[in-house]
Amino acid sequence: MVEDLLVQGPDRGRTLVLAHGAGAPMDSPFMSQMAEGLASEGLRTVRFEFPYMRERRQTGRRRPPDSGNVLAGAWREVVERLGGGGDLVVGGKSLGGRIASMIADDIGARGLVCLGYPFHPSGRPDVLRVAHLRELRTPTLIVQGTRDALGSLEEVEGYELSPRISLAWLEDGDHSFRPRVRSGRTLRENMNLAIDAVAEFIRRR
Hints:
With 205 residues, the chain is α/β, with parallel strands linked by helices. The protein has a single domain (6-203), classed as Rossmann fold (3-Layer(aba) Sandwich). It is built from 6 helices and 7 strands; from the N terminus they run ββαβααβαββαβα. It starts with 5 loop residues before the first strand and ends with a helix.
């Protein structure tokens, strides 16, 4: 069961529902910066936590993510609480975006936003998580760092993906969009570019 929802931005208008990644909660610096940036653009965001992360918050004990069925069930519960997928853009960071991508078509989501999609586990480029992305019907934006260890620019260019998927690349960004110092770029710059890309995508929905 999903309990708390963290809402930012206007009371009305298009809503982006965001789920966190595998290791950090819904109020992590990454998630908070994304939500605050979109709120400053006049867009509404709703964040929630999967059961395993809520348990970690309550007990302080770390444990692995829930099973795929539990994660998908949490997503469906939130969508139902918010009135259904027709007016929602769904997505999230890494794991959260991946699970959203697996239910987006079924719930009739207006759009899908993946922030650092885990195309494969770290160090396992042979274990791809793209099968469902080939047939995805929901309009989708994937924001990805060019040197993401879970799907770099060079790797992703070789994947067969649905024509409904657009990619926004962040130069020299890692899985959390952080560039190397020697690149001359900053995390703030990449986050701002990500926020701009997501805001533009949502406004077109």
